[in-house]
Amino acid sequence: MKILDYLKKPVVAAVLAGVGGIVLGLIWGWVIQPVKWKDASPSLLNTASQETYLRMAIDSFGVNGDPQLASQRYQELGSAGPALLKTIQTNPGKQNPVTIMSFSNLVQPVSDISTPTPSGTSETPSTSKLVSYGIIVFAILAVGVVGFALFRLLGPRLFGRRSGEATPVQQAHRLSKQVELTDYASRGEEPPIAQFVTTYVLGDDLFDDSFGIDSPSGEFLGECGVGISETIGVGDPKKVTAFEVWLFDKNDIQTVTKVLMSSHAYNDVATYQRLEAKGEPILVEAGKRVVLETATLQLVASVSDVEYGQGALPDSSYFERLTLELAVWPKALASE
pLDDT tens digit string along 56-68? Predict the structure, then answer.
């Protein structure tokens, strides 16, 4: 099966969309349109800018002598204030030492609340940095989790369980190619406008094949497909006990579905009644033909090959392999 075929699977598409969304989000948020801080408090500045801010606050206090404003500006530095004030006291530069001392005496009750670092400089990360680090760590973890889930889902399908071993999808693709399509013309019947073969092999837990239906002129008429309807038991790989065959007609208001059931599921009353809500229950038998009809289309699903799995579960309860041939006609040309 080609890589593009995997993209049609809902689970695969969802996982890839999640990974793509995370990657694009990181690129957009960190490269194209990074966060720009506006009206941030001095506590979010880097250390050098915080020291510059405090020196300006001290100079301002030396001019206006407003103790309330000085205290407010100092408190806006948060826990970085004591260490920054200590640095300025030790290295006053061109500032007036008397003004520095007066400012320090004013805010001393506030500075007593916080303990300066031994080095006399503040290395406490700002809130913005902590948020940024948190986002990066979260993004890495998210990508890792999604990547692991993707590998668990697709690894065995794409690469096989052991080196050199064909995956269930590869086995199914090979078996489908070996099926000789029914020659309806040689049987005196109108040939179908579309004819497909699909095969399920045990281990393909994401089995869900769909095909587009076009008229001879290329007009889109609808879609058809086969997917897993019900499993039995626990553990990997999934043990499929029923499949859904469906037909969508662009000219009809609903999709027609029939449920192809194993012998065990068909004869189990509870399972039969539960799956009956999804569509008409059909017992799978080699050579059996199942007909689905919509307003303008008719589909015949023929069981080309079927084999049940062997194990601890009841006999004939899950499929080891199932191959179906799907043939579609316009209603006016539908074969009898």
Answer: 988 888 888 888 8
